[in-house]
Design a protein that fits this description.
The protein is mainly α. About 50% of the residues lie in helices and about 5% in strands.
Amino acid sequence: MTLPPRTLAAGLLTSLLALTGSGARGSELEPFTSDGCSAFPDGTPAQQSLWARCCIRHDLAYWKGGDVEERLEADRALGRCVSQVGEPALAELMLAGVRVGGSPYWPTPFRWGYGWPYGRGYKPLGSAEKVRVSERLEQLQLLLQELSQELGSGSTEQAPQGHAPRLPIAPSSSSSNASASSRKGAICFAFRRF
């Protein structure tokens, strides 16, 4: 017996949703994460993080998610940013990659709206979701301020030879409990070294 294409597609989609556990995490927004330019280099061999800031800004938009027009604008902003650092041909290649690989329907950690549970798709943020995004961004800002102060005082852990220094993520002992709890889980960056 041959199934009609629609029935087969619906069955495959249902299986995929069941396997990825959509809905299992509820509607909670995960902390912002960025891996820079995902499977693409963050820069040239001579300037290894030349367009990394473009990718991190793009990741921020993808983490938050939203409707289809917001995704298109985020992708175009990535292209403009990479072009502005002097790499217009690479910008076109990156734009093509994110348009294909960044769909909210791929169960990947870099899909559109990856901060929300899988299955959200293209949907404008509601007022409660916008509040949660703002809260997460405030947590991120507090953590980055603390890290900046710690780096300014030279307080990074000693890294093994050939590795980047590990940044202290735990709140310092001089931090108040209120600010420490507001930073909990605020950010997780996974930067690669080439």
